[in-house]
Amino acid sequence: MDWASYAQHDAVGLGELVARREVHPRELLDAARDAADRLNPELNAVVARLDDRAERAADVVDPGASPLAGVPYLLKDLGVGIEGVPTSHGCGLFRDTPMPETSTAVARSKAAGLVIFGKTNTPEFGLSLSTEPRAFGPTRNPHDLRRSAGGSSGGSAAAVASGIVPAAHASDGGGSIRCPASVCGLFGLKPTRARVPMGPTAAEAWNGMATMHAITRSVRDSAALLDVAAGPEPGDPYAAPPPDRPYLDEVGRDPGTLRIALTRDGDVPSDGACRAAVERVARMCEDLVHRVEETAPAFDHDALRTALLTLVTVHSAAQLDQIAELLGRELQPGELEAFTEALAAQGRPVPGTEMVRMRDTILGLGRRFGRFFQGFDIWLTPTLAQPPAKLGWLDPDGVDAETLLTRHTLYGPFLPLANATGCPAANLPLVWSEDGLPLGVMAMAPFGREDRLLRLAAQLEAAHPDAWGITTAQ
Fold first, then answer.
1. One Pfam annotation, family name (predicted)?
2. Residue 355, domain member (yes or no)
């Protein structure tokens, strides 16, 4: 299969070709690898290749075993792994350290017949909204090579937006699916807390703030991938409410008339283009007979920001201690990026009682949003408060930590709210600037209601096919 034909299909579409035996998984793998060979030197989206493993996997695919059987796929190089294969977490110290086990989500992807042929770039330990790790270099946005592909799933987003793959694995602890999806013009769904298990060993990440799923071009690809990965496993500390039906069945299903809350600005003002983008999507929703009301949930933004920063810094300190234990020595200054070291230093002296108080603040937000969503079905905001950032603006070694924290707040003030509450949220790729840059709009739904997001997103995708998910392959 030539690349032009390959890039016209989403993942489910490629799976259908495999199921009908019109194409062999090896042909799809060859098309994906050819695309990576041609495009990746400029983008720096893929940082490791697993060609031999992928060839073996492609040769034993059972066509039609799942809607995604035989489809090429990439894993984000952070937080998940394949037994015997290194996961760097965006850090040079782990470039060659093999993982001791295969992650549950990865095992489920392989069982569904996805052909994993590489790993994608990520910031060091996923701590940034821009993928510019010292260890591997920056990932460039396919729509403008001077700009960031977002973070922390920037490598995955660039690979999808460029047409290397139709979908790629991603994770989200503070916007790391939705930010890259926004700046690369893709659909990015952060699932409900505990929808996708973190096992087989880990129980949660960042006190339940982090989860994993995928970045895709189409809504149905996201739904199909969620069907593959979702569901509890033995030993989970908690689980998300079970869905009424497979998520793929929600695509095309009538969402009914939704009550949509519209918010243009948080406590940080949004850029005019981002405000205009969410207003435009709100009008699209009204055209589909949904009811839109301008309002916002009330909460203490400063208290929440303090609590979130405390959680991240304390976890960073604990992670560095674990790294030192694994290495059998103390870490030396400069071995990690300056931003990583600064976050850990800030979290190390935090007392346990303060950590408990900050966690209670975060959990309290979930209660507030639970009440808010009793009156609304969807909350619509800008995904980012500014257009896609240029590379270097969030450089973890080139910008001091205090400035980086301020810039993250200015860039993505709405992003961590879905992580703190555990609610599902998705980037809708419907608006583009005059100079061709994506301007994402975020839809958040009540806890456990990915079905509602998928129905609305699929409805908008069908109503506006010329705007949805434009990729450089097209």
1. Amidase
2. no
